[in-house]
Structure formats: structure tokens, C-alpha cells
Amino acid sequence: MADVLNRLKGCVSTTDGKVQIKDANAVKGLIDELIYEAVFQQDEEKRKSLQRLVIEIAKKMGAVPASIQELYEEMGRNYPGFTVPAINIRGLTYDTARVIFRKAMEKNAGAFIFEIARSEIGYTKQKPLEYSAVVLAAAVREGFAGPVFIQGDHFQLIRKNYLSGPDLEKNYIKGLIKEAIDAEFYNIDIDSSTLVDLDKPTLKEQQRPNFSIAAELTEYIRSLEPKGVTVSVGGEIGEIGGKNSTPDELRAYLDGFKETLKSGKGVSKLSVQTGTAHGGVVLPDGTLAKVKIDFDTLRQLSDAARKEYGLSGAVQHGASTLPDEAFHTFPETGTSEVHLATGFQNIMYDSPALPASFRDEVYAYLKQECAKERKEGQTDEQFFYSTRKKGFGTLKKKWWDLPANVKEPIMKELADKFDLLFGKLRVVDSKPLVDKTVKPVVVEKVLPADLL
User: Fold this and answer.
1) Shortest CA distance to 10 belongs to which of 33, 29, 26?
2) Do 53 and 38 touch, CB atoms closer than 8 A?
3) Given pLDDT bands bounded at 50, 70 and 90, which one contains residue 274?
4) How far apart are CA 246 and CA 274, in angstroms?
5) For residue 425, which of 75, 58, 14, 112 has the smallest C-alpha distance?
6) Long-range contacts, stretch 221-229, CB < 8 angstroms, 24+ apart
7) Contact 226, 271 (CB under 8 A)
8) Is residue 68 over pLDDT 90?
9) How far apart are alpha carbons 402 and 406 in whole angstroms?
């Protein structure tokens, strides 16, 4: 660490704990080593300080964490014809984020989100501050300037936890929200759809636990916002993998939410269920079952959200494993945002460039550590497919340390996938609209006095 920081002193200085850039090109040349140290430094306090340093450097170099709120308000008034990809990166995060920024600059795209879910923070061992630092380090390395949208995905209340201790579960989510906003996640999706009570006689009463908790957590988010920042908050009405959502459920949730929210802005979008499942459904031979999305329902829900409530539209989860030819339908149905995760993970694991010996090492780890998750009758292919997302966290350093001749072909496969997605979702040339609507606020944070 001392070596990296000594060299950094030649191109970065601090005054009263605030960063100044003396030589931007030299910073770009050091960022690979700095972010590696910021992720793998053993001392927790030093690690956090280095992650904060990376974030402050990025802001000074023009990559600024931002809320997508203003763009989504514009989408609520006038749908621009594109669907924003929200990308969950579980492993090889720095390399993958670099590919995304590179593709965005090539395609003049500004409407894209980096996100990580409550569950992913745990099993990939990427806390919010680290995730922000890694994403923003990638922006520095690629020379990306503009708003960077970082999102807490599925900040979900776990039903059994909530039923056994409501305050404990709510407080856990509040702690996660605070940690995320401190790490400059200015976009947060609250998922309290797990609390919907289908035993109640009316849709509004079924949705009441959902919208009342979502309103409470939205007010909490508003209380933590830095000056000048309005966090974009998302709600959810249909547990992904369950029955399809309906326009009447959407209205029951949004009407109830509006009545319950005491002050401040409400949600900017609403996640719905239209037939997908997170990660897709894997068959015994390891191939994926074909998914059929109800695009008519998605169109109806997006239209209702936008025309009746001024939201950006409906959000589709669990879409990354859809066939390539399906993605153009999202902007055609007015979908405002689509969440993508497992498909990128699959590219990493299934790439011919990944050494079989390394894949076997990961699978041996999963066989031991995730044995209790194996369902009766599952084939090895099904078991490994359903658990391999958990092969990124404990083995994060080994993934990061894979040699260039392994990572480069994987990144080329990912680049091709992002090229396709940016085109099909029509976010190519979305940067002018993003720059027009989103005016990111630089929230300066003070670094420890002895860091540099």
C-alpha cells in the first residue's frame, strides 16, 4: 500500500481531507493498483479509506455518482423510447465495469445503471462502499465523465424474518439503506412485495403491508439524502417467480403508497412480475428452459404507471437469460428499466477461456459449502447452476488474479453482449438526454488526514 500511495502523491494531493488532482493521466495509470489495494487490503479501516479515496478521485475526474430521478421524471412525462439496463455485476467487477464504460462511450450511451442486491452484497462479499469504489475506479480507468448511476437492487424484506420480528427486519434494511447512501448509491429499490398478504379480501388490503413499509422506508431514505440529491426509489408489487401482476394491483399499491407517504417524493418506477424467474429455470441437463414474458401485461402496467401516476414505467426483473431476440420488445412495450445479472455470470463460467481446473476448483468449493442447498433429485448441472453465483465471494481474489489471457476473451464475450443489449434496449445515443435532465451533485466527503 505504501508504494502505491507514495506514487499517488505525485499526482493527487489533499487539503483539509479533500482531494485535488495534479496529473489526471498519472492517476489513470495508477488506478489498477490502487483499486486492487482498496479491495484486498487486510486492515478494514485502511481498506475503507482507500475505497473512499478512489470515489473522491473519480468525482474530481468527472465520474459522479448520481440519481436517475430527473431522467425518470422526464420518462414519466414523455417516454423516450428506450429501456434502461440495470446491470448486476457479481464477479470480475472491475474488468466488467470497464467494459461497460468503454461500450457506453463507444455508443454515446448515458442511460445505464450498476446495481447490487441485498443478497448479492452477502454472497459476493461486495459491500456498498467497495462496489461504488470499484465501479468508479473503472470509470476513471476508461476516462468516462458524467453521471454514474449506482443502485441498491432488491433491498428486500425477508418474509419469515419480518413475521418473527418486524422491527428487527425493518431496522436491518434501514441499516443497509444508510450504508448504501453513505457509499453514494443514489438509487434504491425497496422490495417489500414479499409481505403481500393474499389471504386478505381486497387488493388494497393484500398490498397494505407492502405499500406501508415501502412508504416508511422511502421517508427514511429522504431523511438521509445529501443536500441537492433526490434518491430515485423503486417499489415492487409482484414477487419475481410468482403470478403475473395486474394493473389493478399496481393501482392498489400506488394509491395506498400515496395515501401513506407523509412527505417527500414517492417512487419513480415499479417492478412487476410478467413471467420471469431470477436466474432462469435450469433443466436437468443444465440448459435453460425457455421463458415466456407476458409483454402485453408489461405494456399495460407501464402505460398505467406512466399515464396515471407519472412514473417512468414498469421495471422487469430476471431478464438476462432471455433469448437475444426478445430484448427489443422492452422499449416497444414502454418498459422503463430491465434488470440483468445471471446472463453475465453465465458468460464468465461457461466461457471456453476459463480454465477447466479453475472452474473445477470453484465447483469443489460449492459442493462443500452449499451442500445443504442441494434439492432432492437435482442433477450436478442443476445444483452448480443454482449455486455458482456463490462462487464469487470467498474466491474473489482468485477471480481477480486470473491472467490476462483468460480474462480478455471473457471480456470480449461480455462486450459483445453489452453491444447487443445497448442496441436492442435503444440506449445508444441516450447520453444527450441524460446530460440534459440529470445534473449530478458532487457530495464531497472528507478523507482521513493521514491517508496521503
Assistant:
1) 26
2) yes
3) confident
4) 9
5) 112
6) 221/177, 221/181, 221/188, 222/263, 222/264, 222/265, 224/177, 224/178, 224/181, 225/181, 226/181, 226/441, 226/443, 227/441, 227/443, 228/441, 229/67, 229/186, 229/441, 229/443
7) no
8) yes
9) 6
**pLDDT band at 281; cut points 50, 70, 90:** low
Instruction: For helices 295-309 and 69-77, give the axis angle rounded to 10 degrees.
Output: 100
Residue 151 near residue 100, CB atoms below 8 Å: no
CA 174 vs. chain centroid, Å, equals: 18
- Does the pTM exceed 0.85? yes
Strand pairing of 12-15 and 18-21?
A: antiparallel
Cell 490502487 sits on residue: 34
Return the pLDDT at 241. 45
| Residue-wise pLDDT tens digits, 221-270 | 999 999 999 999 999 997 644 678 999 999 999 999 999 999 999 999 99
pLDDT in the model for residue 133: 98
Domain with CATH 3.20.20.70 in the chain: 64-347+404-437
How crowded is residue 22: how many other Cβ atoms within 10 Å of its Cβ?
Answer: 11
List, for residues 181-234, the tens digit of each pLDDT value.
999 999 999 999 999 998 999 999 999 999 999 999 999 999 999 999 999 999
Neighbouring C-alpha atoms within 13 Å toward the C-beta of 41: 20
The amino acid sitting at 180 is A
Q: Which fold has domain 64-347+404-437?
A: TIM Barrel (3.20.20)
Q: How far apart are CA 431 and CA 104, in angstroms?
A: 9
For residues 148 and 135, the answer to whether their CB atoms sit within 8 Å is yes
